[in-house]
Write a structure and sequence with these properties.
It is a single chain. With 445 residues, the chain is of the alpha+beta class. The strands form 2 sheets. A 5-stranded mixed beta sheet has the order 3-4-5-7-6. The protein has a two-stranded antiparallel ribbon with strand order 1-2. Strand 4 and strand 5 form a beta hairpin. It starts with a helix and ends in a 21-residue tail after the last strand.
């Protein structure tokens, strides 16, 4: 049984891949069926049909052969094949009595037309074929017009039209489902690519913040150590210790950030929490050790969501880094984080005069470019100073706007610079809070 079914499946696949061979086989089988039926006399209706009671005329055999041969082209020329078979069937009804079953080929041709055209065309062509052949059988046949053979022509042609239309509808339904599935698959792939791009952008921002902050501190402390190495070796050792601490912190944060790129199942997945306002005191201490006085005012209220907490920490980190790089000697900074209704406001101020390498266009006496806005905000600098490509401010603004907040940066009246971020407490990033993220606003000062 298994061998038989597998052989039937192979034959079916071969015929489906070779439609012309299938149509030729169908035409041959139709011809055999018509010839066998032409030897059968249906009788007067009171007894069973008698096989061999009559013999078809040579003209009828010719018509049956022509209509069967026309079926070979039913897929390529469906309307033409239907016209030829219907015309030959009508000729059989008009000239021969009793007629041979040439109409079998017309039924198959009508089914093909109905399965390959639209429904209005099927209705028009089907009604025309049904009416024409039934009228020819009723008018020119020797049997009464109400005989079952005449109504059989009407029934078989109508059935062919209905079956072909049903097959066409089912084929269209299956194609629609397949197209919808393919569209959904493409949508999933596009969504996956979009999420990957967003994750890469977020990781790139984290890497920029970590590297810019710690490398700036390492650069400052290394310069101090080189300056006092000969005269005050104890202070040089202290500066080198700060360099070591800053580099260690940079490596740790880089390990955490790059660890996000690990594939599932990779060993030593990162478990360290992401930085937040809970460790703001340690961040401020690194700047104080680098020679930048920083005053902090932070209202210890409700815990912030993880995404908002991280964004506030990164804004403060980037702003203080730029103060240290560009505000000049003797600059001081102030940091404040307060809850105002449903938002958290982060402000970083400095009173610096600016360094010689600052971007031209700063206001006289303008302070350090703590993420200056550049041309669009009227500020003098960017998050990377003159050497960078402006990624500091761009990163801060992207972080804030991704949460539905707003960020402004520019010179202060009377000198200095100001960065102000408004973050909604209800983040709209769609990212779930990462486990272990420090979300409190309390400080270790």
């Amino acid at each position: 049984m298994t061998t038989l079914s597998s052989g039937f499946a192979r034959a079916r696949r071969w015929l489906r891949d070779h439609p012309l061979a299938f149509d030729a086989t169908l035409a041959f089988c139709t011809l055999v069926a018509m010839i066998c039926s032409s030897f059968t006399d249906p009788g007067d209706g009171h007894g069973p049909p008698a096989f061999g009671a009559r013999t078809p005329e040579l003209f009828s055999v010719l018509l049956m052969t022509l209509t069967a041969a026309a079926l070979v082209l039913r897929r390529r020329r469906p309307m033409q094949v239907l016209a030829v078979t219907a015309a030959l069937a009508a000729v059989e009804y008009v000239l021969m009595d009793p007629p041979a079953p040439v109409v079998m080929s017309t039924v198959i041709a009508l089914y093909t037309v109905a399965s390959r055209t639209d429904r209005p065309t099927t209705w028009r062509v089907g009604l025309l074929t049904m009416g024409g052949l039934t009228a020819a059988a009723m008018v020119f046949g020797s049997t009464p017009w109400y005989s079952q053979e005449n109504f059989g022509v009407f029934a078989w042609t109508g059935l062919a039209s209905a079956a072909g239309d049903a097959v066409r509808s089912r084929r269209a339904f299956v194609d629609a489902i397949r197209e919808r599935a393919e569209r959904a698959e493409r949508t999933r792939e596009e969504e996956a690519r979009r999420r990957v791009a967003e994750e890469r952008l977020r990781i790139a921002r984290d890497l920029h913040d970590v590297v810019a902050h710690h490398i700036a501190l390492v650069n400052v402390q290394a310069g101090v150590a080189a300056h006092v190495m000969d005269k005050r070796p104890d202070q040089a050792k202290e500066a080198l210790a700060h360099v070591r601490d800053a580099s260690r912190s940079a490596l740790n944060e880089l390990r955490v950030t790059v660890g996000l790129l690990r594939q599932q199942g990779d060993p030593e997945a990162p478990t360290e929490p992401a930085p937040g306002l809970a460790v703001l005191g340690e961040l401020v201490a690194t700047f104080r050790n680098a020679g930048l006085p920083v005053e902090v005012a932070c209202a210890d209220r409700d815990r912030l969501p993880a995404a908002v907490d991280l964004a506030a920490y990164r804004v403060i980190q980037e702003a203080l880094t730029n103060v240290r790089k560009h505000a000049g000697a003797g600059a001081r900074a102030e940091v404040s984080v307060v809850r105002v209704g449903a938002t958290a406001e982060v402000t970083v101020l400095d009173n610096g005069r600016g360094s010689a390498g600052r971007r031209p266009g700063a206001a006289p006496g303008g302070g350090g470019p703590v993420g200056g806005t550049g041309p669009e905000d009227g500020g003098p600098g960017d998050g990377d100073g003159q050497a960078g490509g402006g990624h500091g401010l761009v990163g801060m603004r992207e972080r804030v706007t991704a949460l539905g907040g707003a960020l402004t940066a520019g010179p202060r009246y009377g000198g200095g610079f100001r960065v102000h971020a408004i973050l909604p407490v209800e983040a709209r990033t769609g990212e779930p809070d990462r486990p272990g993220t420090a979300g409190g606003t309390g400080l270790r000062r």
